[in-house]
Design brief:
- By secondary structure, the chain is α+β, with helices and mostly antiparallel strands.
- The chain has a single domain, classed as Alpha-Beta Plaits (2-Layer Sandwich), CATH 3.30.70.1350.
- It is built from 3 helices and 6 strands; from the N terminus they run E-E-H-E-H-E-E-H-E.
- Strands 3, 4, 5 and 6 form a 4-stranded mixed β-sheet that branches. A two-stranded antiparallel ribbon has the order 1-2.
- Strand 1 and strand 2 form a beta hairpin.
- Helix 1 crosses helix 3.
- The radius of gyration is 15 Å and the shape is elongated.
- Belongs to the asp23 family.
- This is Asp23/Gls24 family envelope stress response protein.
- InterPro entries: Asp23.
């Protein structure tokens, strides 16, 4: 699925990989986030921290009419307050997508897949 943005001069199409890279960079810059993980963690039962080129595996985009939602799957550090981390991720992702890509997100759902103990 790609996001289409109409402009006076034509139409802009953003692919999932572009959006996933912006979202993934916004997520991993937050304090307490160890990294992004695959959305199929429970099926595979393997935690693999995703690198920048694989952020699309940990980001799911869904569009229903004019509403766009993003689901992110993360691994957090032990000893941090998970609710505060998730709230910061939601705010950061919405801000970065609006500022860098030019469209608004209606929902940012954060799924914590695990806690890493150092």
């Amino acid at each position: 699925m790609a996001i289409n943005i109409p402009t006076p001069n034509g139409q802009i199409t953003l692919s999932n990989e572009v959006i996933a890279t912006v979202v993934g960079a916004a997520v991993t810059d937050n304090y307490g986030v160890v990294g992004m993980v695959s959305k199929s963690f429970f099926r595979d039962n393997i935690i693999e921290i995703l690198r920048r080129e694989n952020f699309a595996k940990g980001v799911v985009l869904s569009q229903n009419g004019n509403k766009v939602a993003v689901d992110v799957y993360i691994l957090v550090s032990y000893g941090t307050k998970i609710s505060v981390i998730c709230q910061n991720i939601q705010e950061t992702v919405k801000y970065n997508v609006e500022r860098l890509l030019g469209f608004t997100l209606d929902f940012v759902n954060v799924h914590v897949q695990g806690v890493k103990v150092d």
